[in-house]
Amino acid sequence: MLAMLYRAVPGCTELYPAVPSRSGPCHPLRPAACFRGGGLGMLRRVAAVVGVPLLRATPGGPGRAGLSRGRPREEEDDEEEEVMMEEEGGFPLYPGHIPTSPLQKALLAAGSALAALRDPYRHDMVAVLGETTGCLALPSLRDKMRQHPEGYRILQERPRIRLSTLDMDRLQGLPDGTLGREYVRFLEDNKVSPDTRMPAKFVDDEELAYVIQRYREVHDLMHTLLGMPTNMLGEVVVKWFEAVQTGLPMCILGAAFGPVRLNARKLQVLATELVPWAIRSGRNASCILNVYYEQRWEQSVESLREEIGILPPPAVRV
């Protein structure tokens, strides 16, 4: 069922990397380049799943598309798709954007939520869930950034945290305790890369797409500032902090359902020490998206915690 749902929406074939695309085999590091079939065929598969016809007849006769029988089917699909996108105002708004209807977003949200609950480390599912359920939280975060001098500058300059924009050698050479050095240490210790963050695709606003992209790219910095590893307990603690900070439904779901995979000892530590601290810190801290982290690499982690309002982490082993 989930396979049918995700294959029914344009651009979701990266969730099934073994499926070849028109342009060739899917590349594991370039998921956005993997598409299966035309957008019209994908929309039809959505219609087949939910039993709702998504296509409307175009001039040329009742129930007919008015297209020449002699033309390749692929060209017919592309032309019908263009007509439908013109009618619905569904043209891409930024590179990589995949326009989707409310029905398609609901299908994606439901399917990605189930998949993420089954495997919390499916970052592609977590990303889709965040984009398809953040319609209320993202504008609020964007407004907070607009009203803050540093946040407003971030929105204007659109910095990215990627290996191509980071001077890893310089960060590695910074003194211990600085944000840059501790961030690199976090990446090395947990064997993660900033390039694993998926680009936004389903957010129907170019500026809001950047907001959620920025949230994803500072996520590892939240681990660094909170002193949390990437194991399940650490991820749940960070999600509690982010849920209070951002109001994103994806963070709330992760905070609520992530603990089901923890053992009794970790649950006790989480409930008595870590969750209360994460909630207090989330409420006390200023908006985490209003910090230009790229200009704070030489600042000490302790100093930045105090500036943002993150309380000192409890002395427990995570």
Automatic annotation (TrEMBL):
It is found in: Mitochondrion inner membrane. Its cofactor is Zn(2+). The keyword Lyase applies. Keywords: Lyase, Membrane, Metal-binding, Mitochondrion, Mitochondrion inner membrane, Ubiquinone biosynthesis, Zinc. Its main location: mitochondrion. InterPro entries: Coq4, Coq4_euk. Its EC number is 4.1.1.130. It catalyses: a 4-hydroxy-3-methoxy-5-(all-trans-polyprenyl)benzoate + H(+) = a 2-methoxy-6-(all-trans-polyprenyl)phenol + CO2. GO terms for molecular function: 4-hydroxy-3-methoxy-5-polyprenylbenzoate decarboxylase activity; zinc ion binding. Pathway: Cofactor biosynthesis; ubiquinone biosynthesis. The keyword Chaperone does not apply. Residues 60-81 are annotated as: Disordered. Zn(2+) binds at residues 219-220, 223, 235. GO terms for cellular component: extrinsic component of mitochondrial inner membrane. It is a peripheral membrane protein. Belongs to the COQ4 family. Component of a multi-subunit COQ enzyme complex, composed of at least COQ3, COQ4, COQ5, COQ6, COQ7 and COQ9. Lyase that catalyzes the C1-decarboxylation of 4-hydroxy-3-methoxy-5-(all-trans-polyprenyl)benzoic acid into 2-methoxy-6-(all-trans-polyprenyl)phenol during ubiquinone biosynthesis. This is Ubiquinone biosynthesis protein COQ4 homolog, mitochondrial. The gene is COQ4.
